[in-house]
Amino acid sequence: MSVGRRVTSDHQLARLLQIGIVLEEVVEARAHHHYQSLADDERESDEEIEELLEHAVEESAEHRDRLEGIIADLDAESIPFEDIETLVEAQYGNTEPEDFDGVLYDQLCNEETAYKFYDDLIDAISASEAQFSVDREHLVRLLTEIREEEAEGVESVTRIMETRE
Amino acid sequence: MNTADQYVKAIYLLQEMEDGPAATGALADMLDVSPASANEMIGKLEDRGLAEHEKYKGVRLTDDGIVRARDALKTYCIIERFLANVLDVEEFRAEARELEPVIDDIVADRLDTIIDRNDECPDCFDPETDACCYLEVAEVEERPAD
Question: Domain HTH dtxR-type: where (chain B) (predicted)?
């Protein structure tokens, strides 16, 4: 066991990026489910939530692509992530929100969790002196960009929640 | 998981194994830190009301410390189970120990939405094998014969 919050090897970095990919996949799958769960008339009457969920799906897919690009450069094994949606589906019955408040709250949790993950990962990379086979500056810049997009996501959901109080 | 949580988890596991206070030396060994570092953190945990140091015996968690340790252990179980069941990592114990400091409990809670954890968790965690006893069974069954 190590008590230091540091990333010390390519392997550990690749594993953490895989976890990031799974988190994005979870966000994507849950947002997609929420979107599908809205009835047609609800979608028409609530364009704000429809746009939010559509954007969440697109952004998560884009983040996954960027993380996969780094993993490919690290020469690490690929992730069996075609199963993630099935896993989300299998566990979903217990957690599916029943109304717009639930959808928004779940989306807020998604964005906050992703933000926290990237924030901790950037700290752990910065605290390490390890040499990775990808350019550290590029890596931190890319993760910082993704983290900022997650922060914007938190703000967007919070703004919508505040207007509905 | 922050450093204090890793310490209370380690103390909890040692208490379980020893059925008594955790010896400072054993704690330092488990966390791969110096005895001086372990003593320093034990002092901080005492200040926060999470542990009590018993002279010549070791350290024992308070009730608040036990609650915190069980939460930390649950987070650790999620990481192990996620690695073993979702990412098919064979060395899930070693990798969980490496990743533990970087994975926050809110991140683990999100990963928990796609794994199937036992209701007994974290009581099903076996400190001797450093894994959930049910996860151990699944691994043996799935491993092909040599």
Answer: 1-62
